Amino acid sequence: MTDTPIALVTGAAQGIGYACAEAIAEIGARMVLSDINGEGAKAAAKTLGGGAVAITCDVGDPQQIEAMFDQIEAELGPVSILVNNAGIARPGDFLETTLEQFQAVVDVNLTGTFVALQRAAKTLVANGMEGAVVNMSSINAVVAIPQIAAYCASKGGVMQLTKAAALALAPHNIRVNAVGPGSIDTEMMAGVNANAQAMKMVMSRTPLKRIGTPREIADVVAFLTGDKASYITGETIYVDGGRMGMNYTC
Question: What is the rounded CA–CA span in Å between residue 111 and residue 97?
Fold first, then answer.
C-alpha cells in the first residue's frame, strides 16, 4: 500500500468522468479510470499520465464491479476516493418502454452505484481508513422529463442512496456526497447542441444562458473529495447554471 490516496472514477473514458479523473489527479491522488469501453479507458489513462491505471468494467454487472475492486486492492491498495460517474440514459416513449429497458438503466445508474459504494466502504472500514465518495446524480433527480423515466427514477434513487450511505458511514469518517449536473457539454448533449430549437429550449430554462463544461462538474467533485469539504456529507450539489431555482420557462 501507499500513502498516496487511490481514486477510482467509473465511466472515465471521456466527458465528465475523464474531467473528474483529471481534477482529482491534480490534488495528488493515484488514478484508476474505469469504463465499459476498455480501449477508451486505456487511451484516457495514457493521456492523463501520472501512473494512471485503466480497467474495463461494466458497472451494470455486480460481479465485474467486485472483480475490479479485487484487482485494484491487490495491485494498488484500497480505494479511498470513489467517483460513481458511469451512467446511461435510454430515451423513449413512456408507454413503449419495456421493463428490460427500464431495468438496464437502473442496473447501471443505481444498482452499480450501490455495489461500488458498498464494496469500497467495506474495505475502508476493515482497514480503519477514512474515505470520500461522490455519486453522480442529476437535476433529473428532482425535475422530470417523461422521455427518460428510468433515468429520472435512477437518479432520484442515487440522491436518496447518497443520504442513507452518508448516515451509515459517518461513524467511520467516510463521507458520501453527490453532484447533480444540469445541461453539460458531453456526448449526451450532442444531439441538443446540433438542434437550434432544442438548444433554445435548454437556454430558456438555464439562467446563466449557456451549457456547462465537464470541468465545471469535475471541480465540484474534486472539492467534495478533498479536505476543504471535510464537514460535508449527505449532500447533493446541483451544478446547473441556476436551473433548479426556476419555477417557469420562457
Answer: 19
Other residues' Cβ atoms within 10 Å of the Cβ of residue 103: 13
With cell 452505484, the residue in question is 113
pLDDT tens, 57-104?
999 999 999 999 999 999 999 999 999 999 999 999 999 999 999 999
Predicted structure pTM score? 0.94
Catalytic option among 18, 151, 231, 248: 151
Residue 151 among the catalytic residues? yes
Q: In what order do the strands lie in the sheet with 174-181?
A: 53-56, 30-35, 6-10, 79-84, 131-136, 174-181, 236-239
Spell out the domain ranges in the chain: 6-184+213-242
Closest CA to 112 of 138, 82, 143: 82
- Superfamily designation of domain 6-184+213-242: NAD(P)-binding Rossmann-like Domain (3.40.50.720)
